[in-house]
Amino acid sequence: MTSCDPSGRRVKFLANCTRDPRIGGRQKATGDTYHAQLQGECDFEFGHVARPKMTHCANRVAEARGSPSSLRVGIDIVRIEHVRESLAHFGDRFIRRLFSPQEVHYAMKSIGLAAERLAARFAAKEATLKAFEMSNVGIDWREIEVVKLPSGACRLALHGRAAAVVAETEVSEIVLSLTHDGDYAAAVVTAMGVATASRTRAQSQ
Amino acid sequence: MTQLHPLDAQIRAVLADHGRLNQNAETIAADDDLYQAGMTSHASVNVMLALEGTFEVEFPDHMLTRKVFASVETIRSALIELGVS
Q1: Which residues of chain B lie closer than 8 angstroms to A164, CB-CB?
Q2: pTM to 2 decimals?
Q3: Hey, which of A60, A61, A88, A204 has its CA 20 to 30 A from B27?
Q4: What is the pLDDT of residues B61-72, one digit of tens each?
């Protein structure tokens, strides 16, 4: 149990994603690109519907007047060279403050791509903060973790306060997409509300 | 004329080195929004790490917010809260 989780329940949100076969051919040339599937795997109970104020960095679409927020989007782009400079200047301190041991392990497996991978992960963390309007909550960056599975799939794992904040929103599914190419790395996080997700599934049947 | 706080010179030096501002960090107003002055989220992390090194403090989680690093003034307030004088 953590101070962010006063109820004692486990608050953790996982959004699974897999390699998109449509872009598989480009991945070898341009780096890791992931496209998330909507699986909505989560293991927390939904709390009340949070209605935070709109900010400059989060886009939300309400389906109808008075309905809860149903779609959240966060995006971030990072210059890879700037991350390389941070690594050179702050070294281990930069890594330890921002990234989980698993993220570091994956990034450092290929020294030549370490800055690219860390930049993409930093972008994912910032995109998540924007999508859930957590920029002023006070979140440890390591609580927003990009997990890469041996299969090549990746997922977003939230811990501690970040997971608690997300648990308070009416979100059932999170989509994460990462890319890095040339000078930049970028990430998009999209989250769908319960009502939207249910309706989308019903319409597709 | 606004009186300069003794901490401001060191804060501005950190901003000049790490903030990636599109304005002169030495002359930017203490309450000007640093993000509007070009500081990115990644640059704000560098500023945070540099401030920690300069003032030998560690920003706790609850201070890792956009608001804390939004201006010279808010950074100064956070440092004072951390016991810097």
Answers
A1: none
A2: 0.75
A3: A88
A4: 999 999 999 999
